[in-house]
Amino acid sequence: MLTVNKVIPQGHGLAAVLLKRATSVVLDWDTRQKSRFDAEDSTQRPLGVFLARGQVVRGGDVLVAEDGSLIKVIATPQPVLVVRACAEHGSAFDLLRAAYHLGNRHVPLELQPDRLQLEPDHVLADMLRQMHLIVTEELAPFEPESGAYAAQAAHGHAHGDHAHDHDHAHDHGHEHDHGHGHMHGPDCDHDH
């Protein structure tokens, strides 16, 4: 069994030619969130993965085996609930509200500009539909948010490690049209 104990996030810093030659491993979210697991790469080599506790493997990451070989991680499509705003009776704000409620329940959640994705749960699906959102079950790779503390750890620092000028306002060089209105109604057709 080939031992793996290092991850290069998204393969950053690796030459394209090395990534092209790397084998791959297809993993679902349940496996990728574990720090210890066995798998098999695309050449049928058995892998024993031993990572730091709490380290999560993402699709696009590259595992480094103790013999120096590289293994690209592919996030396998799995059943997910895809939550979208109802264009006819809702707004993008409805997704923000849903993310808030799901976050309060500590639900692993993938955030996209036009949708939310979460693992299937009929109780949550019903709650979201009552919020006038469109909920469908699809097969897709699942990459939930890590959370603020995990993001700090991944970057190797917390705010206590260095001084900050607490004015975090940034000019992003684009304007937004905020003069839009939305109509909310209970008769949104959720079976699109």
Highlighted features:
192 residues, alpha+beta, four-stranded antiparallel sheet, 10 strands, elongated
Can you describe this structure in just a few lines?
It is built from five helices and ten strands; from the N terminus they run βαβαβββββαββαβα. It has helices at residues 16-21, 29-32, 92-104, 122-130, 148-154; strands at residues 2-8, 23-27, 36-40, 46-50, 62-65, 70-75, 78-85, 109-112, 115-118, 133-140. A hairpin with a 5-residue loop joins strand 3 (36-40) and strand 4.
Protein architecture, described:
Helix content is about 20%, strand content about 30%. With about 190 residues, it is of the alpha+beta class. The strands form 2 sheets. It has a 6-stranded mixed beta sheet.
List the helices and strands and how they pair.
Layout: E1 2-8, H1 16-21, E2 23-27, H2 29-32, E3 36-40, E4 46-50, E5 62-65, E6 70-75, E7 78-85, H3 92-104, E8 109-112, E9 115-118, H4 122-130, E10 133-140, H5 148-154
Parallel strand pairs: 1-4, 2-6
Antiparallel strand pairs: 1-5, 3-4, 5-6, 7-9, 7-10, 8-9
Distance between the termini: 48 Å
Helix content: 10-25%
Tally the beta strands.
10
- Work out the radius of gyration: 20 Å
**Biggest sheet layout:** 6 strands, mixed
How do the SSEs run, as a string of H and E? EHEHEEEEEHEEHEH
